[in-house]
Amino acid sequence: MKSFVALTLPALAMAAAIEPRQTPVVQVVSARSISNGQGSGCSTGHFSFSLNVDRTVGTAIFDDYRATVGPGEDASLRERFCDFEVTFTFPVGCTTGIIHNSPGGLIRLQDRFDAFFAAQYTIEKGQIVRPPGQIRYNSSNYGAPPNEYLDFKSDHAAGVRVTVNTATERNVVYRASTRIFLGQPGISPTENSVYDVQNAEIYITDLATC
């Protein structure tokens, strides 16, 4: 015997009104360097920024963000820093996502030497909910003959939660305080080791409403 469930008109109307949530739209607006002084790898004149067509990916471009260690080189060159800000527009309400800072460039490490990328992030109108650890590069993967360099592309991703209360407050500033350095294994360098960060793509994935 077949049975049937009758839906009343109010129940049908309620069912029709339920729609899947739309993915929030976040765009990149602009960026600027906020670091100068000794040790900065992106001081005034050494930092630029470009956007893709739909403004979902921004690319920071560095022409002096480079850590080096070699025979007779100044020890201070083994560590550099770069602090910069990126402005996004967020929708009104609560949004979660993952902000990616993806450095790329050239690297070459002497045997037993390491390179590191580390960063701390903050974001206005919200918080970093999953801070990433540092990225380590070792000579087993990034060793090369003298004066030859390898391409690298990495990803440093942080979970974020942002709450925008009004339409006039949609601009949100993301601040990245980054640092690169070369590790020496207790021996004097006999070759040049170079970690040259030439660019970093900044973008957000996994967007959702809270």
Automatic annotation (TrEMBL):
<dbReference type="InterPro" id="IPR025649">
    <property type="entry name" value="DUF4360"/>
</dbReference>
<feature type="signal peptide">
    <location>
        <begin position="1"/>
        <end position="15"/>
    </location>
</feature>
<protein>
    <recommendedName>
        <fullName>Secreted protein</fullName>
    </recommendedName>
</protein>
<dbReference type="Pfam" id="PF14273">
    <property type="entry name" value="DUF4360"/>
</dbReference>
<keyword id="KW-0732">Signal</keyword>
